[in-house]
Amino acid sequence: MNYTIKEAAKKANISAHTLRYYEKVEVLPPIARDKNGNRLFTNDDITWISMVYCLRSTEMPISVIKQYVELSRKGDQTVSERRTMMVEHKQRIEKRVSELETFLKQVNDKVEYYDRLHLGSSK
Q: What is the phi-psi region of residue 97: left when phi exceeds 0, alpha when psi lies from -120 to 50, beta otherwise?
């Protein structure tokens, strides 16, 4: 099945603008076009778009995503390199999640402090 850019963006839960940007910076495989030049996205393209969005949302630089895409295009002989990239990125995400959990605890502690002050002053 083929999707228009609007349909593909909706399916991937991103904006059409972001989708065009991903294509412009070449972090997507080449997208097929119809005789009028309109993009025709496939389910495989949607899968790629979702992966790129995931990587960007977890702070992987565009340059590294491009490297990942280029390795992917080379086929199975790059699986080891791609796996290494994903393992390293996973470790960065886990570190960031841990940092955010620490920050969340601090914020929660402050909210509880203000709640105690507020409840104490309303008596």
A: alpha
Phi-psi region of 3 (alpha: psi -120 to 50; beta: other; left: phi over 0): beta
What's this model's pTM, rounded to 2 decimal places? Answer: 0.82
Residues of the domain holding 110: 78-123
d(Cα 122, Cα 119) in Å, to the nearest integer? Answer: 5
Do 15 and 46 belong together in one domain?
Answer: yes
Instruction: Read off the CATH number of the domain in which 64 is found.
Output: 1.10.1660.10
In the predicted structure, residue 122 carries a pLDDT above the cut 70 = no
Query: How far apart, in whole angstroms, are the C-alpha atoms of residue 47 and residue 42?
Result: 9
Are both 6 and 40 inside the same structural domain?
Answer: yes
d(CA 21, CA 50) in angstroms, rounded, equals 14
65 and 121 in one domain?
no
Per-residue pLDDT tens for 81-118?
999 999 999 999 999 999 999 999 999 999 999 999 98
Percent of the chain with pLDDT over 70: 98
